[in-house]
């Protein structure tokens, strides 16, 4: 049985997730934000994130509506804070996304409109697969990753935790990308990338 949802955040990313959930008739009882704001969907403001702790973790589910535009661990810290308090994050999947039956998802995964995820791919906790991204067979995507709109991963790609892959980037088959990397928008990755590296260009090269 679906539980009521609390949305963390009220910005653009939260709006996209809210619209998906409302289209699926999910009950969003309120949103949190550092300061009181209006919500375009009329969802009530509950207070800051600490207000969530007043709700029984067995009676509500959470959605992390805070997006990311680069490598940062803000989303991870919030996610882990509430996981450690026994709250559950909902997977949000747009109805136009295509997922092969063998795809395995962690907790709190968000898959946006037009995404395609192929056979035997695994996606770990709190990862965003944004609009129109394409992930081919046998890919392994870590936790707290953001695949920005229009990214393309060929088969067998592995991406480490906390990595951000920019808009329109392409990664050829069997590439390994480490943890906490930034792959620039439009980059074409043809070689493995170590941990904590920023890579940009065609072909992608490390920059300092």
Automatic annotation (TrEMBL):
Entry-linked Pfam families: Hexapep, PglD_N
Segments forming domain PglD N-terminal: 5-80
InterPro entries in alphabetical order: AcTrfase_PglD-like (IPR020019), Hexapep (IPR001451), PglD_N (IPR041561), Trans_hexapeptide_repeat (IPR050179), Trimer_LpxA-like_sf (IPR011004)
Protein origin, superkingdom: Bacteria
Name this polypeptide is given: Acetyltransferase
Native species: Ureibacillus suwonensis
